Recover the amino acids of this structure.
């Protein structure tokens, strides 16, 4: 599927939502159908689902390269559509998403959110659901600052602007990105790097920032500057209260912490071959 066909797909889904063309299905039947194959695995995310229902929009800041985010996102989508509510899923990708998804099998180890096979497979399985729409919040193009470096502030402002455009009381919004982007953090230009992250430029928007943490640490498949791409140990993070998954954030950059306890590494990119929805969604030859 080329970029124009992909855009048509999402535009059509948007028109369905804006026109209120949602199927009239008995609420009990819908919830039973959606949750039938979820078992007990979604119970651990109940507090986060409740928060989404109350706040209507969440900016989830994750550590890349682990499978807990894939399960969490799937469970939140299930909970939302089982209640008959439309949801927009905003990912850390640009409108060139079709190209980037096609390139995943050639990825060098799954460095980012979009190169996580488990996450891609879970999300593309929802691509044709009438209550689910996808959105990509990374700007398609960046720019170089006066000192010759990539203008990170311009990029973060672009992310925030694209996220702000989709926030609406008419649907729930789930934004997923790296935890650094979700921070409500501002700094001076003394370091020559960045003024603020997307979370900072959304500080007055109706969205709650949630950092996904692992109190027991774990292993992730990602890329680090010193160690290259591969499996890396995650340092356990202190949480306000052990055994309580959703808590107020101890740092002002976020509104909440959600503790998944321990990270499990995502698969290598070639695992996408086990995901039939991946190629079907893209219409790959």
């Amino acid at each position: 599927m080329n970029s124009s066909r992909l855009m048509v797909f999402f535009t059509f889904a948007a028109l369905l939502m804006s026109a209120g063309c949602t199927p009239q299905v008995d609420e009990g039947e819908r919830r039973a159908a959606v949750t039938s194959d979820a078992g007990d695995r979604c119970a651990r995310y109940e507090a986060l689902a409740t928060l989404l229902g109350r706040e209507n929009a969440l900016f989830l800041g994750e550590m890349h390269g682990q499978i807990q985010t894939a399960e969490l996102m799937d469970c939140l989508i299930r909970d939302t559509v089982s209640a008959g509510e439309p949801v927009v899923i905003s990912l850390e990708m640009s409108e060139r998403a079709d190209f980037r998804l096609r390139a995943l099998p050639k990825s060098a180890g799954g460095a980012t959110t979009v190169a996580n096979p488990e996450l891609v497979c879970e999300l593309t399985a929802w691509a044709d659901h009438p209550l689910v729409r996808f959105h990509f919040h990374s700007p398609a193009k960046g720019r170089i600052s006066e000192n010759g470096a990539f203008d990170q502030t311009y990029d973060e402002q672009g992310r925030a602007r694209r996220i702000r455009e989709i926030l609406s009381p008419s649907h729930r919004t789930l934004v997923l990105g790296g935890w650094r982007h979700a921070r409500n953090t501002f700094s001076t230009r003394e370091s020559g790097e960045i003024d603020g992250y997307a979370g900072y430029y959304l500080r007055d928007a109706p969205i709650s920032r949630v950092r996904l943490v692992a109190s027991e640490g774990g292993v992730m498949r990602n890329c680090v500057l010193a160690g290259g791409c591969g499996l890396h140990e995650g340092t356990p993070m202190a949480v306000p209260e052990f055994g309580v998954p959703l808590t107020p954030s101890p740092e002002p950059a976020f509104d909440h912490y959600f503790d998944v306890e321990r990270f499990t590494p995502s698969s290598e990119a070639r695992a996408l071959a086990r995901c039939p929805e991946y190629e079907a969604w893209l219409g790959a030859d």
User: Anything to note?
Assistant: The longest strand covers residues 172-178. Residues 3-11+40-282 form a domain with the Rossmann fold fold (CATH 3.40.50).
